[in-house]
Amino acid sequence: MNRRRFLGLGASVLGAGTLAAVAGPSAARLLVEGRPGRLLRSQLDLPEAFRAPLPVPAVLRPALSDETGDHYELTQQVASLEILPGVRTEAWTYGGTFPGPTVVTRSGRTAVVRHRNELPVPSVVHVHGGHTPADSDGYPVDLLLPVGSAAPPDSPDASDSSASSMADMRGMHGMHGMQGMPGMPHAEGDTVVGERTHTYPGRQRAATLWYHDHRMGFTGPGVWRGLAGFHLVHDEEEDALPLPRGERDLPLMLADRSFAADGSFRYPAEDPTLAEPGVTDAYMNGVLGDVILVNGAPWPRLDTDRAHYRLRLLNASNARLYRLELDPRPPGGDALVQIGSDGGLLAAPIAHDAIEIAPAERFDVVVDFSRYRPGTRVRLLNRFGEGRTAEVMCFDVSSRPVVDDARVPDRLSTVEELDASEAVATRDFRFRRSRRDGWTINGDPYRPGHSLAAPALGTVERWRFSSDVHHPVHVHLNHFQVIGRNGEGPGPWDAGWKDTVDLRPAEAVEVLVRFTDYAGTYMLHCHNLEHEDMAMMADFTVE
Ligand code: C2O
Ligand code: CU
Protein backbone atom coordinates (compact mmCIF):
# COMPACT_ATOMS: atom_id res chain seq x y z
CA MET A 1 0.00 0.00 0.00
CA ASN A 2 1.52 3.28 -1.07
CA ARG A 3 -0.21 5.78 1.11
CA ARG A 4 1.57 8.83 -0.29
CA ARG A 5 0.49 7.92 -3.75
CA PHE A 6 -3.21 7.81 -3.13
CA LEU A 7 -3.09 10.85 -0.92
CA GLY A 8 -1.77 12.65 -3.95
CA LEU A 9 -4.52 11.30 -6.13
CA GLY A 10 -7.12 12.36 -3.63
CA ALA A 11 -5.80 15.85 -3.70
CA SER A 12 -5.85 16.02 -7.48
CA VAL A 13 -9.53 15.12 -7.51
CA LEU A 14 -10.44 17.59 -4.80
CA GLY A 15 -8.53 20.44 -6.39
CA ALA A 16 -5.45 22.49 -5.75
CA GLY A 17 -6.72 23.95 -2.50
CA THR A 18 -5.95 20.77 -0.61
CA LEU A 19 -2.62 20.13 -2.28
CA ALA A 20 -0.62 22.20 0.16
CA ALA A 21 -1.87 20.06 3.01
CA VAL A 22 -1.05 16.73 1.48
CA ALA A 23 2.42 16.44 2.91
CA GLY A 24 1.38 17.36 6.44
CA PRO A 25 -0.30 15.25 9.10
CA SER A 26 -3.53 17.20 8.73
CA ALA A 27 -3.95 16.05 5.13
CA ALA A 28 -5.96 12.98 5.95
CA ARG A 29 -8.33 14.92 8.16
CA LEU A 30 -8.82 17.61 5.54
CA LEU A 31 -9.62 15.06 2.86
CA VAL A 32 -12.01 13.18 5.13
CA GLU A 33 -14.29 16.20 5.23
CA GLY A 34 -14.98 16.13 1.50
CA ARG A 35 -18.19 14.20 1.02
CA PRO A 36 -19.30 13.08 -2.43
CA GLY A 37 -21.96 14.45 -4.66
CA ARG A 38 -23.49 17.69 -5.81
CA LEU A 39 -26.94 18.96 -4.94
CA LEU A 40 -29.52 18.91 -7.72
CA ARG A 41 -32.35 21.26 -6.82
CA SER A 42 -36.01 20.48 -7.33
CA GLN A 43 -37.94 22.80 -9.61
CA LEU A 44 -41.11 22.89 -7.54
CA ASP A 45 -42.03 23.91 -4.01
CA LEU A 46 -41.08 21.36 -1.43
CA PRO A 47 -43.62 20.23 1.15
CA GLU A 48 -43.35 20.99 4.83
CA ALA A 49 -41.63 18.37 6.90
CA PHE A 50 -43.43 15.96 9.25
CA ARG A 51 -46.84 16.03 7.54
CA ALA A 52 -46.85 12.73 5.63
CA PRO A 53 -47.42 9.61 7.73
CA LEU A 54 -44.55 7.12 7.48
CA PRO A 55 -45.52 4.47 4.93
CA VAL A 56 -44.46 0.88 5.48
CA PRO A 57 -43.99 -1.14 2.30
CA ALA A 58 -46.41 -4.06 1.89
CA VAL A 59 -45.04 -7.56 2.34
CA LEU A 60 -45.09 -9.58 -0.87
CA ARG A 61 -47.17 -12.74 -0.57
CA PRO A 62 -45.91 -15.87 -2.29
CA ALA A 63 -47.94 -16.96 -5.30
CA LEU A 64 -47.19 -20.51 -4.25
CA SER A 65 -45.46 -22.25 -1.37
CA ASP A 66 -44.52 -25.91 -1.59
CA GLU A 67 -41.74 -28.27 -0.58
CA THR A 68 -39.37 -26.60 -3.08
CA GLY A 69 -39.78 -23.20 -1.45
CA ASP A 70 -41.75 -19.97 -1.70
CA HIS A 71 -42.49 -18.69 -5.18
CA TYR A 72 -43.00 -14.97 -5.75
CA GLU A 73 -43.94 -12.91 -8.77
CA LEU A 74 -43.04 -9.29 -9.28
CA THR A 75 -43.84 -7.05 -12.22
CA GLN A 76 -41.51 -4.17 -12.98
CA GLN A 77 -43.79 -1.44 -14.20
CA VAL A 78 -44.27 2.28 -14.64
CA ALA A 79 -46.56 3.73 -11.98
CA SER A 80 -47.88 7.21 -11.31
CA LEU A 81 -47.25 7.91 -7.63
CA GLU A 82 -48.10 10.78 -5.31
CA ILE A 83 -44.80 11.29 -3.52
CA LEU A 84 -45.10 15.04 -2.99
CA PRO A 85 -48.62 16.09 -1.96
CA GLY A 86 -50.77 16.95 -4.98
CA VAL A 87 -47.97 16.09 -7.43
CA ARG A 88 -47.89 13.05 -9.71
CA THR A 89 -44.53 11.41 -10.28
CA GLU A 90 -44.01 8.73 -12.87
CA ALA A 91 -41.84 6.08 -11.26
CA TRP A 92 -40.23 2.84 -12.37
CA THR A 93 -41.37 0.37 -9.78
CA TYR A 94 -41.40 -3.19 -8.56
CA GLY A 95 -45.06 -4.06 -8.34
CA GLY A 96 -46.39 -0.50 -8.66
CA THR A 97 -44.99 1.00 -5.45
CA PHE A 98 -41.84 2.78 -4.26
CA PRO A 99 -40.27 1.17 -2.30
CA GLY A 100 -41.26 -2.11 -3.90
CA PRO A 101 -42.97 -4.72 -1.74
CA THR A 102 -40.83 -6.29 0.97
CA VAL A 103 -39.78 -9.84 0.22
CA VAL A 104 -39.63 -11.79 3.50
CA THR A 105 -37.80 -15.10 3.50
CA ARG A 106 -36.60 -17.72 5.98
CA SER A 107 -33.02 -18.82 6.34
CA GLY A 108 -32.65 -22.32 4.91
CA ARG A 109 -35.73 -22.03 2.72
CA THR A 110 -35.53 -21.34 -1.00
CA ALA A 111 -37.23 -18.24 -2.36
CA VAL A 112 -37.88 -18.06 -6.09
CA VAL A 113 -38.77 -14.67 -7.53
CA ARG A 114 -40.03 -14.40 -11.08
CA HIS A 115 -39.54 -10.89 -12.42
CA ARG A 116 -41.53 -9.65 -15.38
CA ASN A 117 -40.30 -6.51 -17.12
CA GLU A 118 -43.05 -4.16 -18.30
CA LEU A 119 -40.77 -1.11 -18.13
CA PRO A 120 -39.73 0.77 -21.27
CA VAL A 121 -36.08 -0.25 -20.65
CA PRO A 122 -34.08 -3.41 -19.98
CA SER A 123 -33.52 -4.26 -16.33
CA VAL A 124 -31.37 -6.41 -14.08
CA VAL A 125 -32.34 -7.22 -10.49
CA HIS A 126 -29.84 -7.89 -7.71
CA VAL A 127 -30.51 -8.81 -4.08
CA HIS A 128 -27.92 -6.72 -2.25
CA GLY A 129 -26.35 -8.81 0.50
CA GLY A 130 -27.88 -11.97 -0.90
CA HIS A 131 -25.79 -15.14 -0.85
CA THR A 132 -26.87 -16.04 -4.34
CA PRO A 133 -25.76 -18.41 -7.10
CA ALA A 134 -24.12 -16.44 -9.91
CA ASP A 135 -26.83 -17.00 -12.50
CA SER A 136 -29.45 -15.47 -10.16
CA ASP A 137 -27.30 -12.67 -8.78
CA GLY A 138 -28.08 -9.98 -11.33
CA TYR A 139 -24.87 -9.70 -13.31
CA PRO A 140 -25.12 -6.27 -14.95
CA VAL A 141 -25.23 -7.49 -18.54
CA ASP A 142 -27.66 -10.34 -17.83
CA LEU A 143 -30.42 -8.14 -19.20
CA LEU A 144 -34.12 -8.75 -18.83
CA LEU A 145 -35.62 -7.07 -21.89
CA PRO A 146 -39.14 -5.68 -21.71
CA VAL A 147 -42.04 -7.97 -22.52
CA GLY A 148 -42.56 -8.03 -26.28
CA SER A 149 -38.97 -7.10 -27.19
CA ALA A 150 -37.36 -8.93 -30.05
CA ALA A 151 -35.49 -12.04 -28.89
CA PRO A 152 -31.75 -11.66 -28.25
CA PRO A 153 -29.60 -12.62 -31.25
CA ASP A 154 -28.11 -15.76 -29.74
CA SER A 155 -31.38 -17.22 -28.52
CA PRO A 156 -32.83 -20.19 -30.45
CA ASP A 157 -35.82 -18.25 -31.77
CA ALA A 158 -33.89 -15.16 -32.85
CA SER A 159 -33.91 -14.17 -36.49
CA ASP A 160 -31.65 -11.73 -38.33
CA SER A 161 -34.23 -8.99 -38.14
CA SER A 162 -34.54 -9.34 -34.39
CA ALA A 163 -30.78 -9.08 -34.08
CA SER A 164 -30.78 -5.67 -35.68
CA SER A 165 -33.68 -4.41 -33.62
CA MET A 166 -31.76 -5.55 -30.53
CA ALA A 167 -28.93 -3.26 -31.43
CA ASP A 168 -31.38 -0.39 -31.73
CA MET A 169 -32.79 -1.05 -28.33
CA ARG A 170 -32.38 1.84 -25.92
CA GLY A 171 -29.62 1.52 -23.44
CA MET A 172 -27.96 -1.45 -25.03
CA HIS A 173 -24.68 0.30 -25.57
CA GLY A 174 -23.07 -0.63 -22.30
CA MET A 175 -21.18 1.57 -19.97
CA HIS A 176 -19.38 4.85 -20.25
CA GLY A 177 -15.69 4.17 -20.73
CA MET A 178 -16.26 0.46 -21.20
CA GLN A 179 -14.10 -1.52 -23.56
CA GLY A 180 -15.53 -4.44 -25.51
CA MET A 181 -13.98 -7.80 -24.75
CA PRO A 182 -15.16 -10.13 -27.50
CA GLY A 183 -15.01 -13.78 -26.59
CA MET A 184 -14.69 -13.21 -22.86
CA PRO A 185 -17.08 -15.20 -20.70
CA HIS A 186 -20.08 -13.15 -19.66
CA ALA A 187 -19.07 -10.15 -21.77
CA GLU A 188 -22.25 -10.57 -23.80
CA GLY A 189 -24.46 -11.40 -20.86
CA ASP A 190 -27.34 -13.81 -20.64
CA THR A 191 -30.11 -11.74 -22.16
CA VAL A 192 -33.73 -12.88 -21.93
CA VAL A 193 -37.04 -11.33 -22.90
CA GLY A 194 -40.01 -10.65 -20.64
CA GLU A 195 -39.42 -12.77 -17.56
CA ARG A 196 -36.53 -14.12 -15.55
CA THR A 197 -36.60 -16.38 -12.51
CA HIS A 198 -34.13 -15.74 -9.70
CA THR A 199 -33.49 -18.49 -7.16
CA TYR A 200 -32.36 -17.51 -3.66
CA PRO A 201 -31.47 -20.67 -1.72
CA GLY A 202 -31.47 -18.82 1.62
CA ARG A 203 -28.18 -20.24 2.88
CA GLN A 204 -27.60 -17.20 5.06
CA ARG A 205 -28.51 -15.86 8.48
CA ALA A 206 -31.25 -13.37 9.31
CA ALA A 207 -30.42 -9.98 7.81
CA THR A 208 -31.83 -6.83 6.26
CA LEU A 209 -31.14 -7.07 2.54
CA TRP A 210 -32.52 -5.05 -0.30
CA TYR A 211 -33.14 -5.55 -3.98
CA HIS A 212 -32.54 -2.99 -6.67
CA ASP A 213 -31.83 -2.51 -10.34
CA HIS A 214 -28.28 -3.29 -11.43
CA ARG A 215 -28.33 -2.69 -15.16
CA MET A 216 -24.99 -1.97 -16.75
CA GLY A 217 -24.47 1.77 -16.92
CA PHE A 218 -27.99 2.65 -15.69
CA THR A 219 -28.20 1.63 -12.06
CA GLY A 220 -28.17 5.30 -10.97
CA PRO A 221 -31.19 6.46 -12.96
CA GLY A 222 -32.98 3.14 -12.41
CA VAL A 223 -32.79 3.26 -8.62
CA TRP A 224 -33.42 7.04 -8.62
CA ARG A 225 -36.70 6.42 -10.47
CA GLY A 226 -37.82 3.88 -7.91
CA LEU A 227 -36.34 0.43 -8.52
CA ALA A 228 -35.58 -0.59 -4.92
CA GLY A 229 -37.21 -2.63 -2.16
CA PHE A 230 -36.43 -4.55 1.02
CA HIS A 231 -35.63 -8.25 1.21
CA LEU A 232 -35.62 -9.50 4.79
CA VAL A 233 -34.28 -12.84 5.93
CA HIS A 234 -35.45 -14.23 9.27
CA ASP A 235 -34.13 -17.21 11.22
CA GLU A 236 -34.64 -19.09 14.48
CA GLU A 237 -31.78 -17.40 16.28
CA GLU A 238 -33.41 -14.01 15.71
CA ASP A 239 -36.90 -15.35 16.54
CA ALA A 240 -35.66 -16.47 19.95
CA LEU A 241 -34.55 -12.96 20.96
CA PRO A 242 -36.88 -10.54 22.78
CA LEU A 243 -36.46 -7.84 20.11
CA PRO A 244 -39.28 -5.55 19.00
CA ARG A 245 -41.64 -7.21 16.53
CA GLY A 246 -44.61 -6.54 14.31
CA GLU A 247 -45.42 -2.84 14.00
CA ARG A 248 -42.39 -2.03 16.11
CA ASP A 249 -39.99 -3.65 13.63
CA LEU A 250 -39.73 -1.05 10.87
CA PRO A 251 -37.66 -1.10 7.71
CA LEU A 252 -36.69 2.51 6.89
CA MET A 253 -35.42 3.21 3.39
CA LEU A 254 -33.67 6.58 3.27
CA ALA A 255 -33.36 8.06 -0.21
CA ASP A 256 -32.85 11.60 -1.45
CA ARG A 257 -34.50 12.65 -4.69
CA SER A 258 -35.10 15.76 -6.78
CA PHE A 259 -38.20 16.63 -8.75
CA ALA A 260 -38.68 18.51 -12.00
CA ALA A 261 -41.37 21.16 -12.42
CA ASP A 262 -43.72 18.59 -14.01
CA GLY A 263 -43.38 16.31 -10.98
CA SER A 264 -41.07 13.80 -12.62
CA PHE A 265 -37.87 12.68 -10.94
CA ARG A 266 -35.13 15.09 -11.94
CA TYR A 267 -31.79 13.44 -12.81
CA PRO A 268 -28.79 14.98 -14.60
CA ALA A 269 -28.32 12.25 -17.22
CA GLU A 270 -25.89 13.29 -19.91
CA ASP A 271 -28.32 11.77 -22.41
CA PRO A 272 -31.84 12.62 -21.19
CA THR A 273 -33.29 9.81 -23.35
CA LEU A 274 -31.13 7.37 -21.33
CA ALA A 275 -29.86 5.71 -24.47
CA GLU A 276 -26.31 6.37 -23.26
CA PRO A 277 -25.17 6.06 -19.65
CA GLY A 278 -23.53 8.69 -17.47
CA VAL A 279 -24.34 12.04 -15.93
CA THR A 280 -23.22 15.53 -16.85
CA ASP A 281 -19.70 16.43 -15.72
CA ALA A 282 -20.86 18.48 -12.76
CA TYR A 283 -22.51 15.38 -11.22
CA MET A 284 -19.68 12.96 -11.93
CA ASN A 285 -19.06 12.61 -8.18
CA GLY A 286 -22.66 11.70 -7.42
CA VAL A 287 -26.17 13.13 -7.47
CA LEU A 288 -27.71 14.51 -4.26
CA GLY A 289 -31.42 15.24 -4.05
CA ASP A 290 -32.97 18.03 -1.99
CA VAL A 291 -35.94 15.96 -0.79
CA ILE A 292 -35.34 13.30 1.85
CA LEU A 293 -37.72 10.36 1.46
CA VAL A 294 -38.24 7.63 4.02
CA ASN A 295 -40.07 4.64 2.57
CA GLY A 296 -41.01 6.90 -0.33
CA ALA A 297 -42.55 9.75 1.69
CA PRO A 298 -40.93 13.18 2.16
CA TRP A 299 -39.78 13.86 5.75
CA PRO A 300 -42.50 11.64 7.23
CA ARG A 301 -43.74 11.36 10.81
CA LEU A 302 -44.64 8.36 12.90
CA ASP A 303 -46.94 8.22 15.93
CA THR A 304 -44.70 6.32 18.25
CA ASP A 305 -45.48 4.35 21.39
CA ARG A 306 -43.34 4.78 24.48
CA ALA A 307 -41.73 1.43 23.71
CA HIS A 308 -38.76 -0.20 21.99
CA TYR A 309 -38.66 0.01 18.20
CA ARG A 310 -36.38 -1.84 15.86
CA LEU A 311 -35.40 0.42 12.97
CA ARG A 312 -33.77 -1.27 10.00
CA LEU A 313 -32.00 1.70 8.47
CA LEU A 314 -31.06 1.41 4.81
CA ASN A 315 -29.35 4.15 2.85
CA ALA A 316 -30.79 3.68 -0.65
CA SER A 317 -29.50 7.03 -1.86
CA ASN A 318 -27.37 7.18 -5.00
CA ALA A 319 -24.53 9.13 -3.41
CA ARG A 320 -25.61 10.81 -0.17
CA LEU A 321 -23.89 10.01 3.13
CA TYR A 322 -25.88 10.58 6.31
CA ARG A 323 -24.83 11.10 9.88
CA LEU A 324 -27.95 10.12 11.77
CA GLU A 325 -28.80 11.36 15.25
CA LEU A 326 -31.94 11.67 17.32
CA ASP A 327 -32.84 15.16 18.54
CA PRO A 328 -33.37 15.61 21.40
CA ARG A 329 -31.09 12.94 22.72
CA PRO A 330 -32.67 10.82 25.42
CA PRO A 331 -31.36 11.45 28.95
CA GLY A 332 -28.01 9.71 29.20
CA GLY A 333 -27.50 9.55 25.42
CA ASP A 334 -26.77 6.35 23.47
CA ALA A 335 -30.10 6.66 21.66
CA LEU A 336 -29.29 4.28 18.82
CA VAL A 337 -28.49 0.78 20.02
CA GLN A 338 -27.05 -1.11 17.08
CA ILE A 339 -28.01 -4.77 17.02
CA GLY A 340 -27.11 -5.63 13.46
CA SER A 341 -25.22 -4.58 10.37
CA ASP A 342 -25.41 -5.47 6.66
CA GLY A 343 -25.04 -9.19 7.30
CA GLY A 344 -27.28 -9.63 10.33
CA LEU A 345 -27.04 -9.58 14.10
CA LEU A 346 -23.92 -8.44 15.94
CA ALA A 347 -22.52 -10.61 18.72
CA ALA A 348 -23.47 -7.91 21.22
CA PRO A 349 -25.23 -4.56 20.96
CA ILE A 350 -23.28 -1.32 20.45
CA ALA A 351 -24.78 1.97 21.67
CA HIS A 352 -24.26 5.05 19.50
CA ASP A 353 -25.23 8.70 19.64
CA ALA A 354 -24.74 8.95 15.89
CA ILE A 355 -24.50 6.59 12.96
CA GLU A 356 -22.75 7.38 9.70
CA ILE A 357 -24.36 5.43 6.89
CA ALA A 358 -23.07 5.33 3.33
CA PRO A 359 -25.04 4.32 0.25
CA ALA A 360 -26.25 0.68 0.44
CA GLU A 361 -25.26 0.16 4.07
CA ARG A 362 -27.76 -1.07 6.67
CA PHE A 363 -27.79 -0.43 10.39
CA ASP A 364 -30.25 -2.38 12.48
CA VAL A 365 -30.91 -0.33 15.63
CA VAL A 366 -33.26 -0.41 18.60
CA VAL A 367 -34.56 2.85 20.05
CA ASP A 368 -36.37 2.88 23.39
CA PHE A 369 -38.88 5.71 23.06
CA SER A 370 -39.99 5.22 26.69
CA ARG A 371 -36.88 7.24 27.51
CA TYR A 372 -38.77 10.28 26.21
CA ARG A 373 -41.63 12.11 27.85
CA PRO A 374 -45.06 11.71 26.24
CA GLY A 375 -45.60 14.39 23.63
CA THR A 376 -41.95 14.74 22.67
CA ARG A 377 -41.26 15.18 18.98
CA VAL A 378 -38.04 13.28 18.32
CA ARG A 379 -36.45 14.23 15.04
CA LEU A 380 -34.12 11.95 13.12
CA LEU A 381 -31.46 14.36 11.90
CA ASN A 382 -28.80 14.12 9.25
CA ARG A 383 -25.82 16.04 10.61
CA PHE A 384 -24.16 15.86 7.20
CA GLY A 385 -27.09 17.67 5.60
CA GLU A 386 -27.70 21.38 5.19
CA GLY A 387 -31.03 23.16 5.35
CA ARG A 388 -33.84 20.76 4.46
CA THR A 389 -31.53 17.80 3.99
CA ALA A 390 -30.47 18.05 7.65
CA GLU A 391 -33.82 16.52 8.65
CA VAL A 392 -34.98 13.00 7.85
CA MET A 393 -38.21 12.18 9.72
CA CYS A 394 -39.78 12.52 13.15
CA PHE A 395 -41.26 10.30 15.84
CA ASP A 396 -44.11 11.81 17.85
CA VAL A 397 -44.01 10.03 21.19
CA SER A 398 -47.54 9.32 22.34
CA SER A 399 -48.92 9.24 25.86
CA ARG A 400 -51.13 6.17 25.47
CA PRO A 401 -50.29 3.32 27.81
CA VAL A 402 -48.63 0.40 26.09
CA VAL A 403 -47.34 -3.06 26.79
CA ASP A 404 -43.72 -3.52 25.81
CA ASP A 405 -41.92 -6.78 26.51
CA ALA A 406 -39.12 -6.07 24.07
CA ARG A 407 -35.58 -5.44 25.15
CA VAL A 408 -32.05 -5.71 23.83
CA PRO A 409 -30.24 -8.67 25.37
CA ASP A 410 -26.52 -8.37 26.15
CA ARG A 411 -25.73 -11.27 23.81
CA LEU A 412 -27.37 -11.33 20.40
CA SER A 413 -25.63 -13.92 18.33
CA THR A 414 -22.53 -16.00 17.92
CA VAL A 415 -20.40 -14.35 15.29
CA GLU A 416 -17.39 -16.25 14.06
CA GLU A 417 -14.40 -13.93 13.87
CA LEU A 418 -12.36 -14.51 10.75
CA ASP A 419 -8.64 -14.62 11.48
CA ALA A 420 -6.18 -12.76 9.26
CA SER A 421 -3.76 -15.67 9.55
CA GLU A 422 -6.27 -17.82 7.67
CA ALA A 423 -6.04 -15.60 4.60
CA VAL A 424 -4.52 -17.46 1.66
CA ALA A 425 -4.13 -14.32 -0.47
CA THR A 426 -3.99 -10.56 -0.10
CA ARG A 427 -5.33 -8.43 -2.92
CA ASP A 428 -5.36 -4.69 -3.47
CA PHE A 429 -8.22 -2.85 -5.11
CA ARG A 430 -7.60 0.84 -5.73
CA PHE A 431 -10.72 2.96 -6.25
CA ARG A 432 -9.93 6.21 -7.99
CA ARG A 433 -10.83 8.60 -10.73
CA SER A 434 -8.84 8.64 -13.89
CA ARG A 435 -8.88 11.69 -16.14
CA ARG A 436 -9.27 9.49 -19.19
CA ASP A 437 -11.48 6.61 -18.09
CA GLY A 438 -13.78 7.99 -15.43
CA TRP A 439 -14.04 5.99 -12.20
CA THR A 440 -11.71 3.02 -12.12
CA ILE A 441 -10.60 0.06 -10.02
CA ASN A 442 -6.88 -0.73 -10.27
CA GLY A 443 -6.67 1.74 -13.10
CA ASP A 444 -9.29 0.16 -15.32
CA PRO A 445 -12.89 1.01 -16.09
CA TYR A 446 -15.26 -1.94 -15.88
CA ARG A 447 -14.86 -4.66 -18.48
CA PRO A 448 -17.45 -7.41 -18.19
CA GLY A 449 -15.83 -10.80 -18.41
CA HIS A 450 -12.45 -9.58 -17.14
CA SER A 451 -11.92 -10.81 -13.56
CA LEU A 452 -9.58 -8.96 -11.22
CA ALA A 453 -9.42 -11.89 -8.82
CA ALA A 454 -10.06 -15.63 -8.80
CA PRO A 455 -10.43 -16.70 -5.17
CA ALA A 456 -10.77 -20.42 -4.48
CA LEU A 457 -14.09 -21.61 -3.11
CA GLY A 458 -13.90 -22.16 0.64
CA THR A 459 -10.85 -19.97 1.28
CA VAL A 460 -10.43 -16.74 3.22
CA GLU A 461 -8.75 -13.77 1.54
CA ARG A 462 -7.63 -10.40 2.77
CA TRP A 463 -8.84 -7.62 0.49
CA ARG A 464 -7.49 -4.10 0.77
CA PHE A 465 -9.52 -1.28 -0.65
CA SER A 466 -7.99 2.16 -1.06
CA SER A 467 -9.50 5.42 -2.16
CA ASP A 468 -8.94 8.88 -3.55
CA VAL A 469 -12.33 10.29 -2.51
CA HIS A 470 -15.22 8.64 -0.64
CA HIS A 471 -16.24 5.28 -2.11
CA PRO A 472 -18.74 2.89 -0.50
CA VAL A 473 -17.28 -0.42 -1.66
CA HIS A 474 -19.60 -3.39 -2.06
CA VAL A 475 -18.72 -7.05 -2.60
CA HIS A 476 -21.29 -9.51 -3.91
CA LEU A 477 -21.73 -13.15 -2.79
CA ASN A 478 -20.22 -13.11 0.72
CA HIS A 479 -20.21 -10.77 3.65
CA PHE A 480 -16.86 -9.65 5.03
CA GLN A 481 -15.35 -8.40 8.29
CA VAL A 482 -13.50 -5.10 8.50
CA ILE A 483 -10.17 -5.58 10.28
CA GLY A 484 -8.62 -2.16 9.91
CA ARG A 485 -8.55 1.33 8.49
CA ASN A 486 -5.30 3.01 7.53
CA GLY A 487 -3.34 0.52 9.59
CA GLU A 488 -5.42 1.06 12.70
CA GLY A 489 -8.39 -0.83 14.04
CA PRO A 490 -11.88 -0.82 12.54
CA GLY A 491 -14.05 2.29 12.88
CA PRO A 492 -17.07 2.75 15.15
CA TRP A 493 -19.53 1.64 12.43
CA ASP A 494 -17.56 -1.31 11.07
CA ALA A 495 -18.80 -4.04 13.41
CA GLY A 496 -20.21 -7.36 12.33
CA TRP A 497 -20.66 -8.89 8.91
CA LYS A 498 -20.64 -6.19 6.25
CA ASP A 499 -21.19 -6.18 2.50
CA THR A 500 -20.55 -2.49 1.97
CA VAL A 501 -17.86 -0.41 3.61
CA ASP A 502 -17.35 3.31 3.18
CA LEU A 503 -13.82 4.30 2.30
CA ARG A 504 -13.11 7.85 3.30
CA PRO A 505 -10.79 9.93 1.16
CA ALA A 506 -7.25 8.61 1.07
CA GLU A 507 -8.11 5.64 3.19
CA ALA A 508 -7.12 2.01 3.01
CA VAL A 509 -9.60 -0.44 4.50
CA GLU A 510 -8.76 -4.08 5.03
CA VAL A 511 -11.39 -6.79 5.13
CA LEU A 512 -11.45 -10.55 5.43
CA VAL A 513 -13.83 -12.48 3.27
CA ARG A 514 -14.50 -16.20 2.92
CA PHE A 515 -15.92 -17.38 -0.37
CA THR A 516 -18.55 -20.01 0.21
CA ASP A 517 -21.02 -22.26 -1.58
CA TYR A 518 -21.09 -20.85 -5.10
CA ALA A 519 -18.47 -20.68 -7.81
CA GLY A 520 -18.89 -18.22 -10.65
CA THR A 521 -18.49 -14.60 -11.65
CA TYR A 522 -19.54 -11.87 -9.25
CA MET A 523 -19.06 -8.14 -8.85
CA LEU A 524 -17.28 -5.80 -6.58
CA HIS A 525 -17.93 -2.12 -7.10
CA CYS A 526 -18.43 1.31 -5.69
CA HIS A 527 -22.03 1.85 -4.56
CA ASN A 528 -22.02 5.55 -5.25
CA LEU A 529 -24.30 4.82 -8.19
CA GLU A 530 -22.85 7.53 -10.40
CA HIS A 531 -19.39 6.10 -9.82
CA GLU A 532 -20.72 2.61 -10.47
CA ASP A 533 -22.41 3.60 -13.73
CA MET A 534 -19.28 5.39 -14.84
CA ALA A 535 -17.33 2.16 -14.64
CA MET A 536 -16.16 1.72 -11.03
CA MET A 537 -16.94 -2.00 -11.08
CA ALA A 538 -14.97 -5.19 -11.48
CA ASP A 539 -15.63 -8.89 -11.79
CA PHE A 540 -14.16 -11.54 -9.58
CA THR A 541 -14.57 -15.23 -10.27
CA VAL A 542 -14.81 -17.82 -7.53
CA GLU A 543 -13.28 -21.05 -8.72
CU1 C2O B 1 -26.39 -2.94 -4.20
CU2 C2O B 1 -23.82 -4.63 -6.85
O1 C2O B 1 -25.19 -3.76 -5.59
CU1 CU C 1 -17.08 5.58 -5.67
Which kinds of small molecule does this entry bind, naming each only once?
A: CU-O-CU linkage, copper (II) ion
Report how far apart the termini are: 26 Å
Please state the average pLDDT score. 90
Low-confidence stretches: 1-32, 158-185
CATH fold-type name of the largest domain: Immunoglobulin-like
CATH architecture of the largest domain: Sandwich
**How many separate helices?**
6
Radius of gyration: 22 Å
CATH class category of the largest domain: Mainly Beta
Count up the domains.
3
Structural class: mainly beta
Instruction: State the shape.
Output: globular
Q: What's the CATH superfamily of the largest domain, by name?
A: Cupredoxins -  blue copper proteins
Helix content: under 10%
Report strand %: 35-45%
Number of strands: 34
Query: Which strand order spans the largest sheet, edge to edge or round the barrel?
Result: 16-15-13-18-23-20-21
Task: Give a short account of the largest sheet.
Answer: 7 strands, mixed
Tell me what you see in this structure.
This protein has 543 residues and is mainly beta. Helices cover 8% and strands 36% of the residues. A seven-stranded mixed sheet has the order 16-15-13-18-23-20-21, with no helix packed on it. Strands 2, 3, 4, 6 and 10 form a five-stranded mixed sheet that branches. Copper (II) ion (CU) is lined by residues 431, 439, 471, 526, 528, 531, 536.
